[in-house]
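Structure first, sequence second, as always.
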């Protein structure tokens, strides 16, 4: 029988800043409350959508503490903790665990393009350093290299607390292999909002979503519809959201989603360099779709 902890609708939470680039703690608490109300299952602060490379170590800890305090027992808190240096990642992971994170989402090492054995050793060392579950984050389009299904499955079988993978690719052959060969306790989550429907049709466990920042209840609805086998309803939900899914990457994430949240009155429009505001023509496209979805008036 499956004992998967990481499943359902998870949000890759943005980090709200003020115009002076300080952390907006009040807005962060509002965002967590939004997800509690919407029925989101898992909240993930300090991930790459949360601009983690631009956060200081103290901010990383404080954000997790705030989210954990606000979430209470109503949301599972799985904090981002990943760099392309294993020792630094272990430090982040340990600090996140101390701050109250109930799981770790750790992006695959980027830029340095490890071998498959390098990926394995990286995650094995992280898993041995913390007691909480670890979620592998495989995102070849951002990191420059792909963790093979064989490597992910090796980790899933060898390391008891490697609990899941966020598979953020459209490699359906790899996804199928992960789903067919995984341990019963190991979750396979998509990191691609447009693939929620086909991914869960294959047996996937849910999504770690960017669009859940804007439409958390709709993402939870889509995941639930697929879990319950309501394909026609799920198709209608997907089609309603598919343009938003696309527009969220019209420029670098999290630019479009943070702009959306600013229009919705949830956060200020503020990014840390090298991220900058969207171009005006792209802002117009995003705003038009938010109006179409009834998210702004």
């Amino acid at each position: 029988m499956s004992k998967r902890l990481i499943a359902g609708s998870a949000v890759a939470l943005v980090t709200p800043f003020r115009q002076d680039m300080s952390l907006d703690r009040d807005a962060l608490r509002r965002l967590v409350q939004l997800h509690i109300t919407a029925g989101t299952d898992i909240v993930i602060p300090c991930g790459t959508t949360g601009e983690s490379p631009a956060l200081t170590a103290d901010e990383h800890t404080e954000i997790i503490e705030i989210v954990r305090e606000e979430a209470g027992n109503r949301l599972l808190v799985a904090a981002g903790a990943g760099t392309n240096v294993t020792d630094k990642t272990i430090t982040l992971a340990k600090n996140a665990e101390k701050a109250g994170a109930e799981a770790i989402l750790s992006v695959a090492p980027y830029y340095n393009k490890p071998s498959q054995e390098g990926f394995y050793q990286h995650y094995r060392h992280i898993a041995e350093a913390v007691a909480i579950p670890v979620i592998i984050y495989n995102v070849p389009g951002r990191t420059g290299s792909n963790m093979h299904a064989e490597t992910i499955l090796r980790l899933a079988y060898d390391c008891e607390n490697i609990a899941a993978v966020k598979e953020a690719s459209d490699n359906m052959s790899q996804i199928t292999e992960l789903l067919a060969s995984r341990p019963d306790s190991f979750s396979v989550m998509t990191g691609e909002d447009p693939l929620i429907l086909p991914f869960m049709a294959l047996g996937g466990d849910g999504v770690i979503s960017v669009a859940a920042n804007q439409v958390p209840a709709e993402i939870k609805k889509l995941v639930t519809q697929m879990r319950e086998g309501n394909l026609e309803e799920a198709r209608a939900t997907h089609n309603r959201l598919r343009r938003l899914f696309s527009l969220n990457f019209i420029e670098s994430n999290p630019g479009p989603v943070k702009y959306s949240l600013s229009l919705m009155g949830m956060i200020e429009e503020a990014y840390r360099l090298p991220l900058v505001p969207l171009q005006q023509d792209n802002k117009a496209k995003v705003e038009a779709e938010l109006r179409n979805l009834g998210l702004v008036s």
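Margin note: The chain has a mean pLDDT of 96.
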